[in-house]
Design a protein that fits this description.
Blueprint (H helix, E strand, L loop, with lengths): L3 H7 L21 E2 L5 E3 L2 H16 L2 H11 L22 H17 L2 H17 L12 H7 L7 H19 L2 H19 L3 H7 L7 H12 L2 H8 L4 H8 L10 H18 L2 H17 L30 H17 L11 H14 L35 H9 L8 E4 L3 E4 L5 E5 L4 E7 L6 E7 L2 E9 L7 E4 L2 E2 L7 E9 L4 E5 L4 E6 L2 E9 L2 E6 L10 E2 L4 E3 L6 E3 L2 E5 L8 E2 L1 E4 L7 E3 L8 E2 L9 E4 L3 E4 L4 E6 L4 E4 L9 E10 L9 E4 L5 E5 L6 E7 L7 E6 L6 E9 L2 E6 L2 E6 L13 E4 L11 E10 L5 H9 L3
Parallel strand pairs: 4-8, 16-21
Antiparallel strand pairs: 1-3, 2-5, 3-4, 5-6, 6-7, 7-12, 8-11, 9-10, 9-12, 13-14, 14-15, 14-21, 15-19, 15-20, 17-18, 18-19, 22-37, 23-24, 24-27, 25-26, 26-37, 27-36, 28-33, 28-37, 29-30, 29-36, 30-31, 31-32, 33-34, 34-35
The chain binds zinc ion (ZN).
């Protein structure tokens, strides 16, 4: 939804803004979308998708969409009935008409093309003729509502009604259609009457059946009308069984139908905006965190067979029925609302997380869910992630799935999340998409030129003048981002943050953004060997033609070779291309990555805040700061500061699994000389481990490795590490040889180490904590901690020290 408050602030700068005013400003909102007419796509794949859906909307015969509405109202209709989910016997019939109302409204608002307005007006006028005196308006009889209220089998009647009421609201708000609002108000009164006569328990029973976003639309209507009846009618759809665990930050989503739940979270955040009740906000935020962090695939989609699975089950849930498209459509809606609410993501260290996810799901899931070979934008329902899966699509009149419907909506509003503003003083640039922003009320135009993601640069040209704070999203996947204003570099922006450029802008100012992309292998949480290949944010899929696969293909990352075409690699005989461009053939997004998986991680600890220690290699071995770890000035950027009481850094399981050799190197400023603290300790308890302590009770620094407890330790001993000064320490171990380095120079070695790291099940991998519970925690600042699955040479270790790396 476009914030009407922004519209009011913006004034009628663009041609197609309807005279709609909101009675109530949203509570708790500090960022706003621009109205659709303010942003124009100027090329690239998003504009192409939009063109196909626009063509489909113009092609669609409105009388065919009205057929079942007219019959249900006792009116005659000679139109050819639609098929698929719109057939006259399908219980969901009528839902597509709601999607078309929304899509037409968005298409008209974006383009000003009156063909969309004419069709929308016709649809609204004809629907008015189908509305019953009691306000009921549907393509199926009201007896469906009796059935859902009494627990009898019926598909999802309120889900369908939601599509229609939201379509009417969009027709009113985006095109200024007054009749649409009149129909909607009468229909809202019917919803209120129908539900007010039920008990709370009866309503809760009814809410077990999918009811879509009707709560959201009613909250939106309340913001428009200020009528308290619309508020409490919206709250009739608060589903306790789902909302209560979320309010308590409990992930109880497993086993629930995914797309039934996402709109409940959207309604919750709109409930927060309408009422200021922070419980609603917490429900929405917690839900988003669970779904994005624990239930989403590499392409940003979620669900298998439409259901949420147990948290962190990904590799074990690859099928032909993964990633229903509606789910991502709704997750992006939720993400936008959360961005409005908390654009900087006050959740520490996660400033860019919302829009990083938006980009991931938009580019990898939804962009590629439309068939580019169909002039009408035919759309996927599921996006299979089984190895050997293939995308299948809808058609003109005989499909009409839910995802065909949300696909029409998605592809008529692709420009709505590129730019956001706060109070007309901040300009967020969130997406790198070729587009022009005509900033209402500021007399400023921003022209964005890019071929992202095929290139990793974008260029913004400002026309007009004035002061504002341009905040560029620096994605978490980039390394070495550079931003230049009129040719002058602005410093080193950190990944996962926003770079603020607060200045007085003048016409002709140019911002050049470079976001280098690296090849990365994103592991699944339930099987680190199962990985998706990414180049920057873009998931690459192996292209398998007509050849089905019965198991995950194997991939040796060392064989990945760029073809010379952007975003394309070969691995042996297999071509990898962007998944969003993968159509008409079988593919695999996930691979069984063989032994040469990069078991390398680098922790710079330069995140602004938060509990994630990002693996800067892009290999996905992110760590977690435990116990309230804070940050302090580091050897470069910031370091983590460990207090010697309960703080440590937890590194992922498997990081050295199978390694026959390794290097651990880090900068450390030891703050106390407690004995037996650990710089690092990787292992599985006090029986098998490898560790480095800065000081033993014998006054030595010690590396030890064992598979037989302390009595069987094999060791390298060196003088204890001094306190109070930064030192670079490194351990290398390959074959029987282990070497200990301090400040780039060897200080001790042992060439009789017969225990191998591969013999240790490294499930507890810690910086600053021992496998032995009685040992003290480390009191130190730690920076630039790195792990390699090979022994670095003396020259390489020396180089790390010399370069403060
Ligand atoms: Zn769907």
């Amino acid at each position: 939804m476009i914030s009407r408050r922004t519209l009011l602030k913006a004034g009628a700068a663009a041609a197609f803004l309807p005279p709609v005013t909101l009675a109530r400003p949203d509570t708790g909102v500090t960022a706003y979308g621009f109205p659709l007419p303010a942003v124009t796509l100027t090329g690239g794949p998003f504009a192409a998708n939009t063109g196909r859906t626009h063509a489909y909307l113009k092609f669609l015969n409105m009388d065919r969409l009205l057929h079942t509405f007219r019959l249900n109202a006792g009116l005659s209709s000679s139109a050819t009935p639609c098929g698929g989910w719109e057939s006259p016997t399908t219980e969901l019939r009528g839902h597509s008409t709601g999607h078309v109302l929304t899509a037409l409204a968005q298409a008209y608002s974006s383009t000003g093309d009156t063909a969309f307005k004419t069709q929308g007006d016709y649809l609204v006028a004809q629907l008015a003729l189908c509305q019953r005196p009691n306000g009921y308006l549907s393509a199926y009889p009201e007896s469906f509502i009796d059935r859902v209220e009494t627990g009898q089998q019926v598909w999802a009647p309120y889900y369908t009604l939601h599509k229609i009421v939201q379509g009417l609201l969009d027709q009113h708000q985006l095109t200024g259609n007054a009749q649409a609002l009149q129909i909607l108000l009468r229909k809202a009164a019917w919803v209120q009457a129908r539900n007010s006569r039920l008990t709370h328990a009866q309503r809760q029973q009814m809410l077990r059946v999918e009811f879509g976003g009707i709560g959201e639309t009613l909250f939106n209507l309340y913001q428009l009308t200020e009528d308290p009846v619309h508020l409490f009618t919206a709250q009739y759809f608060d589903h306790d069984q789902v909302l209560d665990p979320l309010a308590n930050n409990v992930d109880a989503l497993a086993g629930f139908h995914a797309n039934t739940q996402i709109p409940k979270a959207i309604a919750a955040i709109r409930g927060f905006h309408a009422t200021g009740d922070t419980r609603y906000r917490d429900i929405a935020v917690n839900f988003w965190n669970f779904v994005v962090r624990q239930h989403s695939y590499a392409i940003g989609g979620n669900s298998n067979g439409e259901y949420f699975q147990a948290p962190n089950r990904i590799a074990s849930e690859l099928s032909d029925n993964t990633c229903e498209c509606c789910n991502s459509y709704n997750m992006l809606k939720l993400t936008r609302q959360l961005f409005f609410t908390d654009p900087g993501r006050s959740d520490p260290g996660r400033a860019g997380e919302l829009m990083d996810f938006y980009e991931k799901a938009l580019f990898n899931h939804l962009l590629g869910a439309q068939n580019p070979n169909s002039t009408h934008g035919h759309h996927c329902y599921y996006v299979p992630l089984r190895a050997g899966g293939i995308k299948t699509y809808s058609n003109d009149y005989d499909n009409f799935t839910c995802c065909h419907g949300t696909g029409m909506e998605t592809n008529t509003k692709l420009a709505d999340s590129i730019y956001f503003t706060d109070n007309n003083l901040i300009l967020y640039v969130n997406m790198y998409v070729p587009s022009t922003l005509t900033w209402p009320n500021r007399g400023i135009t921003i022209k964005q030129e890019t071929t992202f993601p095929e290139t990793s640069t974008s260029r913004l040209t400002v026309t007009g003048s004035g002061g504002f704070d341009m905040r560029l999203r620096i994605p978490s996947w980039t390394t070495g981002a550079q931003v230049r204003v009129n040719g002058t570099a602005t410093g080193t922006p950190a990944p996962g943050t926003y770079l603020s450029i607060d200045r007085t802008w003048t016409s002709g100012d140019v911002v050049e953004i470079s976001l280098p992309m690296a090849l990365a292998l994103e592991p699944t949480p339930d099987n680190p060997s199962v990985r998706a290949v990414k180049h920057g944010p873009i998931v690459l899929a192996g292209q398998f033609g007509t050849g089905n696969l019965s198991a995950l293909p194997t991939l040796d990352p060392a064989t990945l070779t760029p073809t010379g075409t952007a975003l394309e690699y070969t691995a042996g005989s297999v071509l990898l291309r962007p998944f969003y461009k993968t159509h008409g053939q079988r593919y695999s997004v996930y691979w069984n990555v063989t032994g040469s998986t990069p078991r390398e991680a680098r922790y710079l600890f330069d995140e602004a805040s938060g509990t994630t220690a990002v693996d800067a290699t892009g290999n996905g071995w992110n760590g977690t700061l435990v116990g309230g770890v804070t940050r302090t000035a580091g050897r470069s950027g910031t370091a983590v500061l460990l207090n010697g009481v309960n703080m440590y850094v937890n590194l992922p399981t498997g990081i050295l699994a199978g390694a026959t050799a390794f290097t651990v190197a880090t900068w450390i400023r030891l703050d106390t000389a407690a004995t037996w603290a650990r710089i690092f300790d990787f292992g599985a308890g006090s029986g098998a481990y490898l560790f480095l302590t800065p000081r033993t009770s014998a006054g030595t620094m010690r590396y030890a490795i064992t598979t037989g407890g302390s009595a069987a330790e094999q060791r390298i001993e060196a003088p204890a590490l001094a306190t109070g000064a930064w030192a670079h320490v490194a351990v290398t171990h390959t074959g029987n040889l282990g070497v200990l380095y301090v400040n780039g120079a060897e200080v001790a070695r042992n060439n009789a180490l017969t225990v191998r790291p591969s013999g240790i099940n490294t499930t507890q991998n810690w910086i600053g904590r021992s496998q032995y519970a009685t040992d003290p925690y480390l009191t130190a600042a730690v920076d630039n901690f790195r792990i390699h699955s090979r022994a670095l040479s003396a020259a390489e270790v020396s180089q790390l020290h010399a370069n403060s790396q």
